[in-house]
Amino acid sequence: AAYRAIWPSEAELADMLPVFWDDSRLGELTPRFPGLSAQVASRRKLLGDAAKLLGLCGEGSEDNTVMRQLQRAHALVSTRAVGAGINACAMLPGIDMANHDASPNAELVVAGEPGVVTGRATITSRGDLW
C-alpha cells in the first residue's frame, strides 16, 4: 500500500498525459505538435481493442469508467516500469523513481547478467542519485 500511495493520482496523470486530454486541449497543441492527435487516437484505439479482447467492455461499448481505469493502468506502467531485458518490464518499488532525470545517472543490473550473483539485484551508480 505504501508503494501505491506514491503513484501519481488519476488527476495528476490526466493533467500530464495527452491520452487523457479532451479534444479541445489536444486541438490547442496541434499547431505545435502536429502528430499528437493521431498518436493519442492510436493509443486510445489500442487500449479500446485491449479492453474488448480482455472482455472488459462489449463491442461498441462506450464505458468511460473501464477506459479511464485501463488508461490509468497503462499510464502507470508506461511511466514507471523498467525493462527486464527479456522483452518484458516490471514495476519495482523504489527503482522506478531512481532515474526520473533527463540525464540518466543510474543503471539497474538484474540477477542473471554476467557478474551478478543469481538471486541478487544491484544498482550500479553512475553518479549522485539525488
Total number of strands: 4
Shape descriptor: globular
Number of helices: 5
Arithmetic mean of pLDDT: 75
Main sheet, how many strands, which sense, barrel?
A: 2 strands, antiparallel
Secondary structural class: mainly alpha
Q: List unreliable stretches of 5+ residues.
A: none
The helicity comes to: 40-55%
Strand content: 5-15%
Give, in order, the helices and strands: HHHHHEEEE
Provide a concise account of the structure shown:
With 130 residues, this protein is mainly alpha-helical. Helix content is 41%, strand content 9%.
Structure notes:
The protein is mainly alpha-helical and 130 residues long. Helix content is 41%, strand content 9%. It contains 5 helices and 4 strands. A hairpin with a 5-residue loop joins strand 1 and strand 2 (89-90). Helix 4 packs across helix 5.
